[in-house]
Amino acid sequence: MPDRIFVRVGELAVARADSILATVGLGSCVAVALYDPELRLGGLAHPMLPDPSMARPGGNLARFASHAVPMLIERMVRGGAQPRRLVARLVGGASMFEAFAPARDPLGLRNVDAARAALLSAGVRIAGEEVGGNHGRSLRFEIGTGRVLVTAVSFPDVLL
Amino acid sequence: MIDVRELDALQIDALREVANIGAGHAATALSQMTSRRIGVNCPEIRILRLEDVPEMIGDPEEPVAAVLMKMLGDAPGRTVQVFPGASASRIAGILLGRENVAFPDGFGELEQSVLKEVANILVGAYLSALSDFLGMVLIMSVPALAIDQAGAILTSTYLNFGDDAEYVFCIDTQLTVAEQDEPLRAHFLLVPDMVSLRVILRALRLG
Asked: Do A27 and B153 touch (CB under 8 A)?
């Protein structure tokens, strides 16, 4: 049985082959999975807000996509990853109650945009996305293969 | 802005009492609708870190039906009713005169609308009791329903409404429907905006 590590809201984790990084119940949060295929090293972040402008100063910066992405890249590099080999996959960023979400710029998509911007500025390529819409998602990131399996209630599984 | 971590024991007791009055009326309404005995747990005042919201009522991956309504008027906020699959299935079944409704696959337009109507009646009863007790005008919006993972629903009821990004607050009352084998539970969450919490405490002469 591979080792399964759950990454909760505002957490980061890095793991090697034989592990599964998982996160469940993603709504408007965005999960960022990073992978170094040569080293078979994977990392997962689970931020819930785009950036700290909506929060009081201090506290855990991994709650913000703008900070969680560079923090995760740094953890991967410390584990031996090469930044230019990294590929990213993004999951989440939904608007669960569409009727009550602002029509323009819902939070989920702002989270996704903040993650994309942070990846772009670090030069990390995005290999796959399963984002937006109005349903929740869970994901299992199998580090051995680098594949990310996305599951949802009443929607088919997606393999990224 | 009120810091929810600074609420004192007397204020928490008073808020619990307010919820009790609302939930009592909601339970009576549910009992009349379903012809079942409805139990009401002592309301819990939950003050938790936003990071802990996904697990606040159980497994974050469990599919649930949730009905969200905005509360408008003197104390704006939200109410969220969470029906775990078994409860959603049984309540829809009772009201539609069927044995059970498969969850989540059996929830088409009709079944969803039944659940929204149940939520409408419960929130109506809850808020009218609160209005009378607090001497306030409290109005509810139309309901929005989601059948999805509990964690995704719960975080979304906080994150999309400009709440504090550190600590959040809600009053959680569990209703249980008496059934032969096992009681079915549902959660009634009242989530006042932080400004409303102050308004409510003032109306109770505790703020």
From this structure: yes
CB contact under 8 A, B165 and A54: yes
Give the global pTM. Answer: 0.90
- The model's pLDDT over B87-109, given as tens digits with 9 standing for 90+, comes to 999 889 989 999 889 999 999 99
Query: How many CB contacts within 8 angstroms connect chain A with chain B?
Result: 111
What lies within 8 Å, CB to CB, of B164 at 6+ separation is: A55, A56, B1, B4, B50, B194
Residues counted in chain B: 207
- Residue B3, amino acid: D
Would you list the domain boundaries of chain B? 4-83+120-203
Q: What residues of chain A lie within 8 A of the CB of B50, using their CB? A: 9-10, 48, 63
Q: Looking at the domain that runs over B4-83+120-203, which CATH code has it been given?
A: 3.40.1550.10
N-to-C CA span, chain B: 12
| CB B79 within 8 Å of CB A35 | no
What distance in Å separates the CA atoms of residue A19 and residue A1, rounded to the nearest whole number?
A: 9
Contact A33, A19 (CB under 8 A): no
CA B112 – CA A53 distance, rounded (Å): 37
* B157 close to A (CB below 8 A): yes
Substitution target in A8, A66, A96 with the highest count of B β-carbons within 10 Å is A96
A17 at the B interface (CB within 8 A)?
Answer: no
Domains, chain A, in order of start with CATH, read 3-159 (3.30.1330.200)
Say which residues have a Cβ less than 8 Å from residue A98's Cβ, sequence separation at least 6. Answer: A134, B144
**CB–CB of A154 and B104 under 8 A?**
yes
State the complex-level ipTM: 0.88
B74 touching A, CB under 8 A? no
Q: Which residue type sits at A85? A: R
